[in-house]
Design brief:
Blueprint (H helix, E strand, L loop, with lengths): L1 E2 L2 E2 L1 E5 L21 E6 L2 E15 L4 E16 L2 E7 L15 E7 L2 E7 L9 E8 L2 E17 L5 E19 L2 E2 L4 H5 L4 E6 L5 E6 L3 E2 L5 E4 L11 E4 L1 H8 L15 H4 L2 E20 L2 E23 L6 E4 L5 E26 L4 E12 L11 E5 L8 E7 L8 E13 L5 E21 L29 E28 L10 E12 L3 E2 L9 E2 L7 E11 L3 E10 L2 E7 L2 E7 L2 E11 L4 E8 L6 E4 L6 E5 L4 E8 L2
């Protein structure tokens, strides 16, 4: 059964007629592949940071501040995957994928779906490990900054002082990639095609040239796991010990991920990104009266000179580049290691005005031109070609190009205006704030995907076809067509964003006795945007969608209690309406809409002395699920439960 082009229910058979060959036989059918997987997403990271700050009173009116900071960090994200499949007999000399697999399911909107298999995927007499893979992200960052500021006091009826200064900073980011796979190709091993054939013998039988046998599971390396709670009723699965299986299955094998030209993305995604910024500013502080009302604030301007660059491999056409070697001795001459740079300067004015209407009421107005730089990884060189064999199941093969990062990307720019009214309570601590804001977005970074793109006609040289993409498994030459071109660029005149914010905070000190420590904080915001971009949500190709991460309505509330500077407690809730974002889908990012959610948390602390404090906190107390869907709620994406997080800690100040 289909809804809006998506399969939402029905019964699916791996081999409905009982006539298809199953892996690892040559020419086997893979129309339906059922696998379970165990991911190891361990992230190992370390960071170091230090800074020095000094002040110098040059005279009674002039103060100089000097600030230096340094930080660096390294991170290794494993992205390790172990996949398992259901075989007829795991003890057989040549295990065969079981074709008698029937899947019955029915999506249920944003509720748990109905899902049932005719086979038991916890039975180690049938389940075997078919694939061991690793695709690490190895990152390093460093940053140095030097800042000098001056503050000069003025004797003026309008301006109280002048501030000016400069800042110099440099940032470096390096990304390394790699790949490890036990077997032939990712797709073959995942689907149980662990034997490679080449040609036939005199009797017409396929000749086996290579075999990567799957690994048996038993009670020593796996255990049956069932999902409880709101996911009770989902099929049970095997929980496995990845490292134990790898050590037993592949003893002595070097499992270090490497860069190879056979998988060119491991070469082309390795980049060094650098950013150098010189900035200077001047600001006049205002302290005067207007129409008899006290007026404070500031008016300033900032000048920023930026240079960004990325050093990595750039495709210059078949045979036109340098001979570049990979980690296993392979070479390619389609690429050249180049440093691509971009520089620009910006002038950013701003002013803030604060009218004191009464002793308890203030009216604030602010304007600023602001900028936000692209994240360092998005400024890397890119140009990874993809070769999709039989992409759509129709026998056609496509060459695609992913250039979704670029050192030519400019910052996000906006002119923003804010006006707010603030009322401060006199008998208790707290305030009521009402604010409206408006942002005129000059440009944003967007991903654009162009289908059936004429690469040669637009001056983009295609690379040499990899050796493993020249022929299919039957030895027939593969014919390639133009596929998708994905690239990032700045979209000018993006549009506006505007919104309303309401905030209320009060300590109920007027209550008697111990109740005087009670208080509450409530904040609500509403945001509306005219900015749209081409949707990448499955089923919405070609349509316009909202920008990522924007929830039109956000409400948060906190009830707190403080007593005698010793005991403190907080209970909070935060609601956000539906929004568009990315989710992980079988190893890659995928856009989807996320259902509205409400998260509750709590925290308590007790100060035993001025130096010793104990803290306990709990987050996501109700175990709120994270639910996504594709376009409408009948097309369920994911239903994920992350559980509750409880933290216990002791803080001691020297």
């Amino acid at each position: 059964m289909y809804s809006n082009g998506a399969l939402v229910g029905g019964t699916i058979y791996r081999d409905p007629n009982g006539t298809a060959l199953a892996p690892p036989y040559k020419g086997s059918s893979r129309d339906l592949n059922v696998q379970t997987q165990a991911d190891d997403n361990t992230t190992e990271s370390e960071s170091t940071a230090f800074g020095l700050k000094g002040e110098w009173d040059i005279n009674d009116d002039l103060l100089m501040t000097l600030d230096f900071s340094h930080s660096e960090g390294d991170e290794n994200y494993k992205d390790q995957v172990m996949r398992m499949a259901y075989f007829e007999d795991s003890s057989a000399a040549t295990p065969i994928i079981d074709d008698n697999i029937v899947l019955s399911y029915q999506l249920n909107g944003l509720n748990n779906p109905y899902l049932e298999f005719n086979q038991d995927f916890t039975d180690t007499a049938h389940m075997m490990v078919t694939s061991a893979e690793s695709y690490p992200h190895i990152e390093s960052n460093s940053s140095d900054a030097l800042r000098v500021d001056f503050a000069y006091s003025l004797e003026s009826e309008i301006f109280s002082g002048l501030e000016f200064g400069a800042r110099v900073s440099t940032r470096d980011y390096e990304l390394g990639r790699g790949r490890f796979l036990y077997g032939t190709t990712d797709g073959n091993m995942r689907n149980g095609q662990y034997i490679t054939y080449a040609g036939v013998d005199d009797q017409g039988n396929p000749i086996e040239v290579e075999r990567f046998a799957p690994h048996m599971l038993d009670s020593s390396n796996s255990s049956i796991t069932s999902i409880g709670g709101d996911l009770t009723g989902m099929p049970s699965f095997l929980s496995v010990n990845n490292n134990s299986i790898l050590n037993a299955w592949l003893p002595g094998l070097d499992r270090t991920p490497v860069r190879t030209w056979e998988h060119s993305w491991t070469m082309t995604q390795s980049n060094i990104v650098e950013e150098d910024v010189i900035a200077a500013y001047a600001q006049l502080n205002i302290d005067t009266e207007l129409f008899g009302l006290p007026l404070t604030g500031n008016v300033g301007i900032r000048y920023v000179d930026s240079e960004q660059s990325s050093t990595g491999l750039v495709n210059v056409g078949s045979g036109n580049g340098d001979v570049v070697y990979d980690d296993v001795g392979g070479s390619n001459s389609d690429w050249r290691r180049e440093k691509i740079s971009e520089s620009y300067s910006d002038v950013l004015p701003s002013f803030n005005l604060n009218f004191q209407v009464t002793d308890d009421d203030q009216l604030r107005f602010a304007y600023a031109k602001v900028m936000s730089r692209p994240e360092m990884p998005t400024m890397a060189n890119s140009g990874n070609f993809k070769f999709d064999v039989n992409r759509d199941g129709d026998g056609r093969n496509y060459i695609g190009l992913d250039s979704s990062t670029s050192p030519k990307l400019r910052p996000f720019y906006a002119n923003q205006f804010d006006i707010s009214f603030e009322h401060y309570f006199t008998e208790t601590d707290g305030a009521f704030v009402f604010a409206v804001w408006y942002k005129d977005i000059e440009n944003i970074v967007g991903d654009i995907t162009e289908k059936d793109y004429d690469f040669a006609g637009n001056g983009i040289a295609l690379p040499t076809i990899p050796l493993n993409k020249l022929e299919d498994e039957n030895g027939e030459l593969l014919v390639w067509e133009n596929g998708e071109y994905q690239h990032a660029e700045n979209n000018a005149d993006a549009g506006y964003m505007r919104g309303v914010e309401i905030g209320y905070t009060q300590t109920f000190s007027f209550l008697p006795g111990y109740f005087s420590g009670l208080g509450a904080n409530v904040n609500f915001s509403y945001t509306e945007s005219e900015i749209q971009k081409p949707s990448t949500v499955p089923g919405e190709d070609g349509q316009l969608g909202p920008i990522d991460g924007l929830s039109p309505r956000v409400l948060s509330a906190t009830l707190f209690y403080d007593w005698d500077d010793k005991f403190s407690a907080r209970v909070s809730g935060r609601y956000r309406s539906a929004y568009l974002s990315e989710q992980i889908a079988i190893g890659s990012a995928q856009s989807a809409y996320f259902q509205e959610e409400t998260i509750y948390s709590a925290q308590m602390s007790y100060n035993f002395t001025e130096n010793l404090q104990a803290v306990v906190s709990a987050d996501n107390i109700t175990d709120e699920p994270n639910i996504s869907y594709f376009g409408d709620t009948s097309r369920t994406g994911t239903i994920q439960y992350f559980g509750r997080t409880v933290y216990f800690g002791v803080n001691y100040k020297m």
